[in-house]
Amino acid sequence: MDMEKLMRWRELTQKYQGKDFWSEIFSNPHTQQMLSSFTEMFGNHARPGTFPPVDIYMNEKEILVVVSLPGQAKEEIQLSLAGDRLSITGNIQPIYKNYTQVITERFYGPFQRTVQLPEVVDKNGIEARFDKGLLEIKFPRICREQEEFIHIK
């Protein structure tokens, strides 16, 4: 490879690897218009199965599931339990419908999340409470402390 080709290659790579390369692309009005069109067409979607965020805690008496749903009303949330699987379903509507979205990081739209609980729970005595955007669901644990003998026939 001669020196002239090497110098041209170097200039080309510096142009494309320079710090301003990506900022030039994303500050371009055509790129911004295209990204805006994609957001309008396909909406702002969270990765499937990751929304809403969930924390699970447990102690000797119960399992506590905490679901973060800021801006949501409790009437817009449905819960169901099948064995050790909790399903959370809802639809989050945009709050400011009379405005054009400039930057949207919050999730809007229908969602469904299924979470596997650490163990099968007692379906009697389940309590759900919604306060300040946090949904807390308490599941009584099945007491298995006492040893049970199994009769052999």
UniProtKB/TrEMBL annotation:
UniProt keyword annotation of tRNA processing present: no
Domain SHSP: start-end pairs: 45-153
Keyword terms of this UniProt record: Stress response
InterPro entries reported for this sequence: A-crystallin/Hsp20_dom, HSP20-like_chaperone, Small_HSP
Entry's transmembrane regions: none
Family: Belongs to the small heat shock protein (HSP20) family.
Protein name (database record): Heat shock protein Hsp20
Protein source organism: Thermincola ferriacetica
Classification lineage: Bacteria, Bacillati, Bacillota, Clostridia, Eubacteriales
